[in-house]
Write a structure and sequence with these properties.
255 residues; Aminopeptidase; 2 domains; 4-stranded antiparallel beta sheet; 7 helices; GNAT_dom; GNAT family N-acetyltransferase
Length: 255
């Protein structure tokens, strides 16, 4: 199966969500209603989909659920924020539980001025991988980084993985990736601080240090996703210089 070809076909439908990395394919459905790909994305099982009309998504999810009774999976809808909120109400009426609603933020790194005093931030080392993964799972309950992903990222020049460490204990981390033409864009994949260390400015320091490193590598702009209801995180990003992008939103449902 040529996944690139499948993704291109899926994205050709008027209504679709064929984005991300499919790490393991469970089954490809080529139906009258559209194209559907069930598989593993990170530690989640997800249904990627493409249909002509949104009602075709409802009918096909029911079929796939019946054929995969022992599989719990998610599916997403993405678009402009107002459109996503509108579709959220439609899909909720189908009986599916809304899990998260994310909105995009962007930052022009030309205007970012960073002059951090000494701070215990360093690049993640292989010896700290296990502690990093434990903290990742302590902070986040979904889309956790797998061990192999983390090792691959550490071996790639396209990733910036920083930790805030005191007395050999990791208290926070940020993961960023460079992408696009000449790696001029920086995507903030995750920012996490252990619960007992929050409200001390660790998250802001990690973000600023990471963006400074991204600028050194040639990044001109940065983008991230944040839960629309996470006001604390949104305030932090706005303090740094990020601006909400109402053209970029995404909602996750549990099937």
């Amino acid at each position: 199966m040529n996944l690139k070809e499948v993704f291109n076909r899926g994205q050709s439908y008027p209504e679709n969500f064929f984005y991300g990395d499919m790490l393991e394919v469970i089954r490809l459905y080529e139906l009258q209603e559209g194209l559907f790909l069930l598989g593993k994305t990170s530690e989640e099982t997800e249904l990627l989909w493409g249909v002509n009309e949104i009602k075709d998504l409802k009918e096909t999810i029911e079929k796939i659920k019946m054929e995969n009774e022992d599989v719990n999976f998610i599916f997403r809808y993405a678009g402009k924020l107002d459109e996503v909120i509108e579709k959220k109400e439609i899909i909720r009426q189908w009986g599916y539980e809304e899990k998260d609603l994310y909105v995009g933020y962007f930052c022009d790194l030309h205007t970012l001025l960073v002059d951090l005093p000494y701070t215990p931030i360093e690049y993640l080392d292989l010896k700290d991988i296990d502690n990093f993964l434990l903290l990742d799972r302590e902070i986040f309950n979904t889309f956790n980084i797998s061990r192999q992903e983390l090792i691959d990222w550490l071996n790639s020049e396209d990733y910036i993985i920083l930790i805030y460490k005191e007395k050999d204990i990791i208290k926070g981390f940020v993961v960023m990736s460079l992408y696009g033409d000449n790696k001029q864009s920086c995507f903030v994949r995750s920012l996490g601080v252990c619960e007992r260390e929050r409200k001390k400015g660790i998250g802001k320091k990690l973000m600023l240090f990471g963006l400074k490193e991204a600028k050194k590598k040639g990044a001109l702009k940065s983008m991230l996703w944040v839960d629309l209801n996470n006001i604390i995180a949104r305030n932090l990003y706005e303090q740094i210089g990020y601006i909400i992008d109402r053209n970029e939103a995404e909602i996750i449902f549990r099937a």
